[in-house]
Amino acid sequence: MVADSEIFASNALINDATAPRVSVFVGGTSGLGQLTIRALVGTGASVRIYLVGRKSSAERSAAFIAEMQTINPKAEIIWTEAEYSLLAETKRACDFVKSRESRVDLLFLTAGYAPFGGREETAEGIDTAQSLEYYSRMLCIQILLPLLRAAEAPRVVSILAGGMERVTSIDLDDIDLKKPGNFSGVRAQSQFGPLNTVTMDKFAHDNPDITFVHAWPGWVSTGNVDRGWAPGSLWSWFVRLFLRPLIGFFSINHDTAGQRHLFEATSAFYGGKGIPWKGDPGVNVRGEHTTGLFLVNFRANCTPNLKVIPALRERAQQKVWEHTQEVLGPYL
């Protein structure tokens, strides 16, 4: 178990020598990504952050960047505009980072929403939520792998549903849920999370010097629940009048949420690299304490799901990997 006091103490050790000097945040214009940026900047360390966001987020992100640079003048936040639900735009943003940097210490992925309003395809023919929560994330990892490999303690963090996998979670006959009647908000969420896990497990196996974290954040009142509903629909009213207040009542404090995810992004509790950890180390999805893929719950504890992940790896990983490479191929 990791106590919040230990998390705050670990984060207090982040300085110019130990901070992830170059970070890429995709989805950091709001929600958990932004809370984690705030926590990282608040350490006072010299960091450079690429904040990837949509044009519609540019104005409020400029105000956020100005605020962060007032808090920590040594923090450089580079606005990187991209409509990251489109894989071509995601590639463009990643190529921009590659043109400027020789390494990336931290890749932090949070973009997405619960698509309870139904399937909505992008111009590339992919469901928007699936592109944000899966394909765009895996494309970022794959394009930036050379820069991650060049870092001393590289880490990839994807915030979605780590530890909530089931053996039969993934519909291998319809990975994109395109068959008539096969797409729903609940079905999509139960599919996209395990897709992250099995593909990140493959990345971790092939890149043993990189630490991967797939985290479930629990309830945090970020406004994300308001997305994905048809305006004026019965469900949108349900969210506004019931679900949003319920989440607000049970949600995690914003500062605590940001600190927990900063811990996931920096602590040697996960794989032995990062801010030194003196207690028992975390366990990855292969039951080991070395680098690899770590599934993490909302309290930053490891939930390796050791009864499910080996079966899911055997049953689904190769087919998911081949399908994913087919989709991402034109953008690599």
Automatic annotation (TrEMBL):
GO-annotated molecular function: oxidoreductase activity
Keyword annotations of the record: Oxidoreductase
SUPFAM superfamilies to which the protein is assigned, alphabetical: NAD(P)-binding Rossmann-fold domains
Source organism, top-level taxon: Eukaryota
The protein's name: Uncharacterized protein
Source organism: Echria macrotheca
Lineage: Eukaryota, Fungi, Dikarya, Ascomycota, Pezizomycotina
